[in-house]
Amino acid sequence: MRSMKRIGMSLLAGLMMCGVAHADSAPGQLRIGTSLTQMPWGFFDQARKPTGVDVTLCGALAKQMGSSPEFVNLDFKGLIPALQADRFDIVCAAMYVTPERQGVIDMVPYIEASQTVIVKNASAVKGLDGLCGHSASVLQGSGSMKVLQAQSQQCESAKKPPITIQAFDTQPIALRALENDSVDGFIATDSLISYFMQHNNGYRKIATGISPMMLGIGVPKNREDLALKVRNGLKEMKSNGTYDAILKQWGIESAAIKSF
C-alpha cells in the first residue's frame, strides 16, 4: 500500500511539474495527447518520467511514422476537446471506441480491453450486480463509468437501490477513495487493476472481463491522411514484432489485436 501511495504522490507531483506543449508542433514531431494518471497505460515513474503502455507504444508509433514523440499531459476528460482545438495531433490514452466519440473524432483501434471491479478483501460485495445499493469510484468520462451507469439502471429496473457513483478526474484519486473506505468498490480496465493488485495487497476482484471493447487512438475529424498513417504505422509495428513486444513488456499481450 505504501508503494502505491508513493507512486500516487509521484504522479500528482509530476503532474504539477509537467509542462503543456505549445499548439504548434516543430517539424518532425508528433504531438500526442495522453493522461499520465492511468497505470499501466500512462503515468510518471519514480524519477517523474512519463512511462506506461501508451507512452511506450505511441512513442514507438511516432518513430515508425518518421516523427519524434512529444507527449502533452491533460486530465482524461479534457483530451477530446483539446484534440479538437489542435493542442495535439492524436490522442493515445486507453480511450474506448464508442459511437459518441466517433461522432466527434476518428478512432484507430489498437488494443482490446475490458473492465474489472475490485473491493477490499473484507467486503461482502460479490459480482457486478452486488454493487446495487453500494458505492463505487471511477474515472470521470471513462468507459468504466458507462458500465457503472448501465448496471445502476439495471439495479433500479430490478427494484434494487442504485449504485452511488463517485467519478474523479484521475485514477489515483479514484483509487484513493477505495483505499480510504470512502466507497465500496472501484472499476477500471483489467490491465490497470492487474497492475494495481501486483503492487498492493488486501483487494479482490468481484467481476472481470466486463464489456470487452476496442481502445482507439484519436485523430481529428477530416484528417483521413493522418488516420491512415497511424493505421499503417501500427500495421508495420505488428509485422516487425514491435507491437507485440511492447504489450508483452507490460504484461498485457492478451490485449493484442490480430490485424490493423
From TrEMBL:
Keywords: Signal. Pfam families: SBP_bac_3 (PF00497). The keyword Signal applies. Residues 29-254 form the Solute-binding protein family 3/N-terminal domain. Residues 1-23 form the signal peptide. This is Extracellular solute-binding protein.
